[in-house]
Structures are given as structure tokens and as C-alpha cells.
Amino acid sequence: MVELRHSSSSLGSRVASSPMKRDEDTSPLIHDHFSQHVEDHPRHSSRDRERSFWWQTYSFSPFSKDDPRFSQRGSRISLFLLLFVAIAGLISIFSILHRLNSPYLCKKDGIVLHCPRVKEKPSLWENPFSATTSWKPCAERREGGISDLPPENETSGYLFIHAEGGLNQQRIAICNAVAVAKIMNATLILPVLKQDQIWKDQTKFEDIFDVDHFINYLKDDVRIVRDIPEWFTDKSELFTSIRRTVKNIPKYAPAQFYIDNVLPRIKEKKIMSLKPFVDRLGYDNVPPEINRLRCRVNYHALKFLPEIEQMSDLLVSRMRNRTGSPNPYMALHLRFEKGMVGLSFCDFVGTREEKARMAEYRQKEWPRRYKNGTHLWQLALQKRKEGRCPLEPGEVAVILRAMGYPKETQIYVASGQVYGGQNRMAPLRNMFPNLGFTLPVPLLIYGSIKAVYLFRPVTKEELASKEELAAFRKHVTSLAALDFLVCLKSDVFVMTHGGNFAKLIIGARRYVGHRQKSIKPDKGLMSKSFGDPYMGWANFVEDVVITHQTRTGLPEETFPNYDLWENPLTPCMCKA
């Protein structure tokens, strides 16, 4: 203690007698009235002087300001602080520049999608402009490139597939076939569009797609031939023989599976068929260049025949000019056919007789899933809660009005025969009168002819004459192609349930630019809102708007939330 006091007192005296202290005491900058005030002020008590003494002792360095060691250490600290501030400033500048230059991209946190804020006012018909200028398609072929493909007789062998299902399922199968042929360095035989039990259509590849464009556009990627080679005489063997068929391919198989299990058989047999081939190639377990090739096939190589494209342009033009002046239009993919309602095993509003008939239909079509029917009520509740039930026409109408679409909105309907007919469509028709036409139909009632007014939605059949559509009725897939293109070119596309049709359209609209709105309703959240008897209209509107402001086809990474067909951004698009 003695030593501490001694050193402290010596330090205090040294500080008090320093030149700086003396200069401060005799400084001419101190005004006379301030000095007078100090002299008139009573002297500090001993306790104040002691407090001041200890503050000086612990707040000052053990070195005097005149000491060179004090000056050197202070300069080092100042230099360090200056360097720290400079580095922090550079990091901030780079961070700001990166944020300004980074493309518009939404991030998903669980089920919530977070998107960058924009200054633009929300639009009913377009996504924010900043979202559309950030990304561009990058899957097209490179012009002037040199092909490294070997001649046809030097590839691993020939690959043959049946593209099953409807038009959109067949389209995905064709894209996957090109990708698998590339993986194994095989020659692809032009895929056969197999007749489906539901569609019952005998359409050939060349009846829908431009074969010459398909082969020429992919000539630097995959060797493609129109038919089975002539040296293979028994062509029926590819359709029937087990020896020529690979059947053990799992769903969403990785690229390595084909190299390990299919390629050796192709090299041995020289020609092999893959069956079944629906969803037999994964997305995030194949190389990026293979996914990019699938996009090249889907968005560039697979072109519909010119007559299909021309007819679709005519339908779009008539849709935009229905009122005599150009107007935007909405395309609604309404999936509420009897088959879809039955297959969903969901419960819908209806009479007892209607529900009894649906139960009989389900028991007949899907006996294994139906069983005795006792578990179906609980299953229906669970599926609706999870958002796995098709939206009814009335539910779609309420959601669209809550989003702000006026009753004058022009709506094109892509749908089969709606289950429930006129009564089921009534709420949608009442909220959106421009959805279709009301036509008088003469009926014989109690011995007299009376006119009964029936509602018919705006479809391709209403926009074109029977003569104009006659050439397309030969193939069911041709009519499906017209629906596909009219929906693709719409200002707003609305899906009501999953499926390859909606998935491919949303993906294509994203690929050509995210400006076109593609609305994907949150059916799980909407089921809670519809089931809440105490929710008022204002609260419902707020829920709908907030929930769906990011569910409009904005830029978002593909994996793991989407597959390639619904969102091609990650492998097939690049920064604009």
C-alpha cells in the first residue's frame, strides 16, 4: 500500500507539473469572467480531491504523454483503429454493391417464401419488373459449336422407349429419354407415343411435334434416328421380348444407375427398350449439364407442328378481343373432372345421393384403396388439411375475388367435363360473368317446348368453329396441345391442382421470363380459412393477399423445393 501511494503521488505531481497543465492554467484562451467564476467557486472538499486523485491514477497510462513510449503506443493503437475502420468500410461497400448487383431471388424458410422488396406497386397482371430482369434462359444450344458425337455405328448402342400417358407426361418422357441417351452415349430411336388406357389415342410423334427440328436442334448433343435400324429385323421383339427390355429402373434414378445397370446390357444386346419410363430419372442426382440438356429439349427442341402453333395464336387473339378491344386474360386450369374427384378420395359438398354415387364409383375404379370405405372420412379430412384436394370452382372464385380480380376479368377455361355440371360452376359464373356464355337450349317439358338457359365456359370449342377444330379432333393430344399453348400465352395462369399440365406451363413461363404471373394457391391454408365460420371477409382477403403475394412464379432456386419442370432456374437459367 505504501508503495502504491508513493508511486501514485509521484505520478500525480508529475501530471500536475506537466507543461500541458501549466499551459492550460495560463492559457490566454480562458476568458476573465470564467477565471473569476473559478476563483469565486468554493474549494473542493477533501473527498472530491481524493476522487479526482484516484481517477487520475487509474485513467492515465503509467507513461507520461512526453514519454516516447506513450507516443509510440498511441500511434500504434490509432493506426490499428484506422485500419479496422477502413476494412469495415470496404466490407460494407462490397456488401452494398453485391446486394445491388445480385439477381432477384426468393429464399424459402420452411413453408414460408421470403422475396426481396420492390418499390413497384403490386399488379394484378404482372410480377415486379425487377424480378424479370434478373435472369435469362441459358439452355439453348451454342451456335457454331463443334460436335464431339461419334458416328451412329460407334455409339454404345440403340435406346428405345415408349412415352406413356397424356401429352404432358409424354413430353417429360421424351426429355428424359434424350438425357439418358446422353448419359450412356447411346443412339436414341425416335420415341413412340404409346396409347394410354385413359386417353385412348393413337397419335404418333410426327402428328404433334416437328421431327426435323427436334433432330437437327439436338444434333450436337445426342445421335437421334427416326426408326429402328434395318439390320434389326424382328422389330416387334422390342415391344414384347423381355430379353430386349430393362424393367427394373427405380423412380427418379440417378445417372450412375444407368451407367452401372443399363449401359452394359445395351453394349451386349446393341439395342434395348426401357419400360416403364415414367419419372425414371432424378433431378438433383444427375450432373447439371444433363439437367440443362433436358431444358434444351423441353423449351427449344420440342416444337409443336406449325398448324398447332397457328391455331393457338388465333385462339389467343380471339380471347384478347372478346369485348371488342384488347384486354388481358386469365387461363384457369380447372381440375374438377369426375375422375380427378374420385381419385383424390376427398370429400366435397353435395347431396347424399351424389355422395353415394361417388362412393360406388370409387369402389368400382379403385377397390384396393376403397376397401370397406370406413377409413375414407378420416383420410379425406387429412388430405384437405394438407392441401392435397382439388379446389372446387366456388373456392377458386372466392380466392380470385379476394386477390382483387374484378368481375369483368376474361377467363379461359382449360378443363374436362366439370363434376357436378351447371350447379357446381354457378358460384364461379356468378362472380365472373365473362367466364363463358349463357345459351338457350330448347327442351320438351310437360308437352311443350321451353327454353332452358345453360352456361358454357370459354374454351377452345367456344372460340373456334367446328370446321376449324375438325383437323385437330383426329388426335386427342392435338386438342390438349391447343389448351397448353393458350394457357402458356395467357397474362395470368391459375392452377387448381397438381399435375404435369400445370407444372410444365408454370416452368415454361418462368423460363421465358418471370414477368407472367402463374398463381399456385396455397390449398392447405385456404382449407383452414374456408373452414373458419368466424372469419370475416376483410380478414380472409388479408390472408389471401399476404399468402399469395409470393406464389406467382417468382425467381426461386429449383432444388429441393421444386422439380425441373416446374422451376428450371437453378440448372437452366443464368444471371442476366
Automatic annotation (TrEMBL):
Annotated keywords: Carbohydrate metabolism, Fucose metabolism, Glycoprotein, Glycosyltransferase, Membrane, Transferase, Transmembrane, Transmembrane helix
GO function term, MF aspect, one: glycosyltransferase activity
Transmembrane segments: 79-97
Leader sequence residues: none
Biased amino acid composition, Low complexity: 7-18
Region: Disordered, residue numbers: 1-26
Gene Ontology annotations for the cellular component aspect, listed alphabetically: membrane
InterPro entries: FucosylTrfase_pln (IPR024709), GDP-Fuc_O-FucTrfase (IPR019378), GT106_glycosyltransferase (IPR052272)
Any one Gene Ontology BP term: fucose metabolic process
Membrane topology: Single-pass type II membrane protein
Subcellular location field: Membrane
Pathway(s) served: Glycan metabolism
Similarity section: Belongs to the glycosyltransferase GT106 family.
Protein name per the record: O-fucosyltransferase family protein
Organism, scientific name: Gossypium armourianum
